[in-house]
Amino acid sequence: MTESVSLLVSGIPAEIVREIGLRIRDVVISEFANAQQMGDAAARGEARLVLLSDTLPVEDSVEVARRAKDANDDVRIAYVISMQQAETALRALKEIHVDRFFLSPVDTEEMLRELAKMGGVDVLPPHASHGEHIAAAVVAAWDRTRASTLEKIDKLDDAAIALLDNGLSTDLRAVAQREAQDIAKVAAQFGFQKGERVARELADRFAHGSLTPIDGVAISKQLLSLRESLVGAPSPPSALQQPTGSSPAESALPTSTASGAVSDDFSLEGRRILVVDDEPMISRGLTTLLGKRGMAVTAVNDPLRFWTALDETKPNLILLDLEMPRISGTELCRVVRSDSRWSELPVIFLTGHTDQASVQRVFAAGADDYVGKPFVPAELLMRIENRLNGVKARRAPVETDPLTGLPIAHKATEQIDRFLRLARRKSDPYSIAVLQVDAFASLASTFGRGTGDVVLRAIGELLPKSFRAEDIVGWWGGADFTIGMYGCTKEYAAIKLTQVLSKIADQNFLSEDGRRVHVACSGGVSQYQTDGDSVTAMREAALKALEQVRATGGVRTTGGVVRIGISGLKAMGPMTRRVDVAIVDDDTALVSLLQHAMESRNLRVATFADGEIAVAALTGTPPEVQASIILLGVDIPALNGLDVLRRLKTGEITRSSSVVMLTSRTGERDVLAALELGAADHIAKPFSVPVLMHKVRAMLRQSQA
User: What is the mean pLDDT of the chain?
Assistant: First the structure.
């Protein structure tokens, strides 16, 4: 009788644990809810396998693994890490030896195969009763997931309603995009193919291009279709199918490769190839072979260095071994396919396993092709040529930088160009601002490569929140960002950019070793027609102003110096836009009426539809806007009027600005609350605009006296 294999498990989804119990022969699973219990069991030395997950704190996993190894040298440790956090987890787990890594979302067949190999037992084939168990597990999992999925659709409904009201904020749009992406993943996981397709279409809608209320109608119809598509019983995603009579390799190869010859009109010179193979002899041979054709080859023998090599090399193609220690080639291929930066990167497997099951594995992981070992050099070169020659034709252009989440240069340029045409027709001002992180290159050498990514990601999140929905924020590579601002002179653009750069300079970033890091930024602005008639010309003018101001000093903040250069003007310090009246209310019809009435009487006006944005603009250091009078609504988004008033009082704004509350709340209690917080007056809605204008003029005369 075969000896049973003891497997300790923690932090693994119930469906996968059940699959392990059904499919691996002679395995006895002990599942634990916490690391302490698991560590106690591991310390008894009876386990042959330990399966951990990054859902547990890293220090707990390290402690469990140590206790298991101390008790039994033969115990094997497996660890499940998320693809997005793989590099971080690998660094944290250097203290212990992990025999095999699996990447989440887990390829169950890959896990079963490797766990069985580690335990020296067999994997059982699926059978009828097993299929019933799987179906039951899928239904149970869907029952747990369905409610949260429908809640995500409710959030998409909120976005559609906001769009129909022409009030879709940047934040709500970003939330809608993320929720749609999450719904697509869940729908794919549970076999709702139509739901997956509709959700991905919705994610694309919210991610790209401008949206109008007309789009809101179409999105509402799609949401109805999405809800309908998730009705009924779920099913596991279907397995990869191959056409009858052909092997996976044959179906993956284009017919034009039949001749076996490398075409003369296609050059491989300069193409970057990443080779990942744990056999140094193989990688050295490939380096020599491909180098003779002018290719730049980077060879990696430790598969755990894959992430670093991929980021540093930015290859045009990957040659990947199938069987490697600690993590398999199929797992690494899934990393590539799951990352939007590399998802279209050609991957060719080099493997001595050419049986049907192995070939099925590589194509299920997302491989483009495979070549058996030992390989024929001419055949390998032909496969590489075919993949590189066809990649440009089939790859859609990348439009968003995955690190910052911002449109890249060519996409942002297209969007700004549309506004430039509108500005030309309407004779409106348009400005471009360029933002750069100072001494960015030294961040990696001083604080670690990941610190630079942390800074760029934070800036990518901050910029869209700091500008209006009609402003275009784009990433131009490295630490270079560009913002297009419609209806803004370059002087006003400089005011806004000063505020943003001050926020960045005041932030604390954490380095990889836990040190606090501050970064300083410089900026330059230029204006359409005054400084250039195209995005390129305006950027050049803004960059020139940026470089000139870097040598002249700037605005001192907690984190450093903020420098803003204005094209055609001498470098200036902080600037504040001074207005007669600031209107804070989300009633667009009322605000439009008041703004027209005031501007027609030559009063300078600033408007805010959001309480948080108003507070940020009015209380900054220096403030973006300084108003003699603030007309403040009560029921406004993000931050209600009384909370706004409370913040204004804390910032001592009520000493220099008269605040008038505009509200339908006429109860004595509400009026007293506003007056106690520093309001100068209280006007009940609906009100007479002429009467309000009379009060405004009187208050302005009083402030000027």
Answer: 80
Range of the domain at 21: 5-125
Q: Verify that 273 and 206 share a domain, yes or no.
A: no
Pull the structure tokens for residue 382: 């032909």
- What is the C-alpha to C-alpha distance for residues 659 and 675, in angstroms, rounded to an integer? 9
Residue with tokens 């469906």: 15
- Which is more confident, 427 or 205? 205
Instruction: Give me the mean pLDDT over the 305-309 stretch.
Output: 88
Let me know if residue 171 belongs to a domain. Answer: yes
What is the CATH number for 212? 1.20.120
Tell me the C-alpha distance between 522 and 390, whole Å: 42
Order of strands across the sheet that contains 369-372: 296-300, 272-276, 317-321, 347-351, 369-372
DSSP E strands in 322-459: the ranges are 347-351, 369-372, 430-437
Residue 399: inside a domain, yes or no?
A: no
From the centroid of its chain, how far is CA 388? 28
Tens of pLDDT along 12-63? 887 788 888 888 888 889 888 788 888 888 898 888 999 988 878 878 888 8
- Between the alpha carbon of residue 17 and those of residues 10, 29, 32, 530, the distances in Å are 9, 8, 11, 66
| 493 assigned to some structural domain | yes
Amino acid at 672: L
Structural domain count, the chain:
5
Examine the fold and report which residue of 229, 260, 276 is the final residue of a domain before the chain moves on: 229
Total-model pTM:
0.40
User: Is 240 within the bounds of a domain?
Assistant: no
Task: Say if residue 684 is in the same domain as residue 609.
Answer: yes
CB atoms within 10 A of CB 686: 8
Residue 11 falls in which region: left (phi positive, over 0), alpha (psi -120 to 50) or beta: left
